[in-house]
Request: fold
Amino acid sequence: MTRDVSNTTWAKHGRRARHRRRALVELAALCTAVAVADGVANLIGHGPDGPALLVIPAFALVATAAFHTWWARRHGHAPPADDTGARPLAAEQSGPTAVGPAAAEAVPGDSALWRMRTTVRDAPGSLAVLCAALAAQQVDILSLQTHPLAEGTVDEFLLRAPGGLDASGITVAVALAGGADTWIERADAHDLVDIPTRVLGLAARTALDAAELPLALRQLLGRCTIRSLPDRPPAAEGPAEAPAEGALEDRVMRLRAPEGGTIIVERPYPPFTPTEFARARALVELDTRLGPRVPRGQVVPALPEGAAITVRGADTDDLAAARAMHARCSARTLGLRYHGPVGDADRYLDHLLSPRFGRTLAARTASGRIVGLGHLLWDGDETEVALLVEDAWQHRGIGGELLGRLVAMAVKAGCARVYAVTQASNTGMVAAMRGLGLPLDFQIEEGTVVITARLDAAPVASRLPYDAGQGRYEGFRPRD
Reply:
């Protein structure tokens, strides 16, 4: 204890002594500066070259400041001469630092996820050189897949890079390490799931519900366009059906659809690899082997009312009955239909039921209660279809009946195609669109699915007679 007190006392007195000496030095410097300033002022004011003596030092100071700024920017990020680049584990985990002279200063803990593909030579040590180049940029490799090719190997990485390192910085380092045809895009937390786990999950979803196949292919292959073409009649023109084993053409993949016809998967970049083609073909083959099936937990119960369902046109006169159906629908059903706050659902009905914006069909019970609505909406040159079926009446074919008749109305109106916007979890709508038997294009982005049916390729007619004068279809009995 005595030693601690003496050390503290010494520290205090030493600090006071240093402070006094520093004050005396600063006072002497101030006096010297005043004397020098007075001498310079007299020289400038009374000398013949006074203005020149003032301007020349000013230019010298500006040039010195500019040179100092350039030098600081050029060498500000350079490590000390004795720095070997090694960092303790705690420093690495606390957060990456900016890399390169053009990189922004990274906030501790800031990082970004990237998905990258590059082609390397199929030679010993090629991958090691590439990994060393990424490590030099403080880039962490979270996962790695290899896609063997006839010449070379496509390596797919999931990377965690410093927040100040952009895509060009990564691709330049990869190119210098021997990588070619490099493709990179930002990733998110969903990509952290390893590939075997993801594929097993997609297979399970497809096995439970046949409508999941296009969505599963999209999640398996990334950003791509999926089209579904029905069986082509022998005399019809168009692309030939895919062989049973499928076909791979660089950026186009053709697979034999489980229900017949062809599934075409296109991706502008990067090209498909044989490994991806094998995975997609295995997923489609699984769906084919399982055949038609009803998702578990969606077994159709007894009908609430035994009478047949009647489908006829609806307009603003049916607003009260449509709102009553909304009140009987669950929040999830309304959310899947309107993609927004459930409380705003009733506001949309004034627009949807107005003949100015399209046509509406309503499925009614014998008592006149509306249990399903189908909308055909004019959207410029495009035409949108949308469905809403009351929870207690779902999975009975009502949505399919409404959709088939809406498409028939679109054909009669001269529409070339119709599209539906829904969520990836709404497999009922996906299944209804696939049930049309028309060529389909799937665009899937962040949980939203846009399914476009091409009516000009295979025009359809209503499956039931339509009375144009009464705006009414014959009744039908949903399946039990």
Summary: Confidence is low (pLDDT under 50) at residues 1-18, 74-108, 297-304, 458-474. The radius of gyration is 36 Å. DSSP finds 13 helices and 17 strands in the chain.
